[in-house]
Amino acid sequence: MAVDPSGKFTYVANSESNSVSAYAINASTGSLTPVAGSPFAAGTGPDGVAVSHGFVYASNEYSDNVSAYTIDPVSGALTPVAGSPFPARSGPVAVAVDRSGKFAYVANTSRISAYAINPTSGALTEVPGSPFESEIAIAMAADPADEFLFVASGAYAIDAQSGVLTMVDFPGGYNPTGLAVDPSGRFLYAATSGNNHFLAFRINTNIRTLVAIAGASYAADGAPQGVAVDPTGRFVYVANHASRSVSAYLINASSGKLTRVAGSPFAAGRGPTAVAVDPSGRFVYVVNNASNTVSAYRINATSGALTPAGGSPSSASLARSRAGGCFSDGCTALRSPRRQRG
């Protein structure tokens, strides 16, 4: 799931129906209305979706490619980019685009593909040296300065000119299912569904290291998956797949440690997997995998608490969605357990 930088539209990858759903966001209430023509055809098994600078990208796990679209700035409707879909490696499960809109990154089985984005057409061209070795990267996030790409199995420095990735130091053994970086670029938050924990790390950009923050490992609320930080950097939200809920935490701006928001966790649909915050910081959206819906919430600007938006939840088109990869809006990219290829 990803919200476009204008805050007018949000997009959801529907793995079971091979499509991408588009919704218009009501600027006053945060409620969602399907865009005319939605859902839009994608490849086979789209898992991840990312939005950047007028384009949408969807990673298609079972056709081994990436669908690219231009966004109609008035309606939010999608039109395939010339040459789309673009080849990927085996099993692309997540896609993300850097803040500058110059590069797209796709998590494949044991590799990460890097692409240069044509700023006029949105077409993708693989960068020299791509793909880059990695273990299965089921979660992706980048810092706001486009210096680092974090994945479940490691961290990479991003070359600002070429988009080439170079592996840097990263604490191992966590295997996160969801990742998000705060807007200051100082903290990384990771959901680990396997052991039901939520963790905080400090990013040291000077020496290119990531350090677990002491005392910042928290028991989660039921198989946490998608993670998103609001644009102010005050709140972080986590989709809990097993407990049909979304958790909310207040971020300590100095230490990066978290305090649970009063009333958290907040009820969602069945099997929430992805979460996104709109660029205004007023609304949160959660994709409910098992009920094929999208829940919308208003954010209390003081406390970070969530209140259901009018008309929520909205129906989706067999949405087995993974969180999108819109770096500038605090989105992450993740996938659910892999289906049998066939």
Describe the protein in words:
The structure is a single chain. The protein is mainly beta. It has one domain: YVTN repeat-like/Quinoprotein amine dehydrogenase (Methylamine Dehydrogenase, Chain H, 7 Propeller), CATH 2.130.10. It is 0% helix and 48% strand. The chain contains no helices and 34 strands. The strands form 7 sheets. Strands 1, 2, 3, 4 and 5 form a 5-stranded antiparallel β-sheet that branches. Strands 6, 7, 8, 9 and 10 form a 5-stranded antiparallel β-sheet that branches. The C terminus is likely disordered.
Which helices and strands appear, and what pairs or packs with what?
Blueprint: E1 2-3, E2 9-14, E3 19-25, E4 32-34, E5 40-41, E6 46-52, E7 55-60, E8 65-71, E9 78-80, E10 86-87, E11 94-97, E12 103-108, E13 111-117, E14 124-126, E15 132-133, E16 139-142, E17 148-151, E18 154-158, E19 165-168, E20 178-181, E21 187-192, E22 197-204, E23 209-219, E24 224-229, E25 235-240, E26 245-251, E27 258-260, E28 266-267, E29 272-277, E30 283-288, E31 293-299, E32 306-308, E33 314-315, E34 333-334
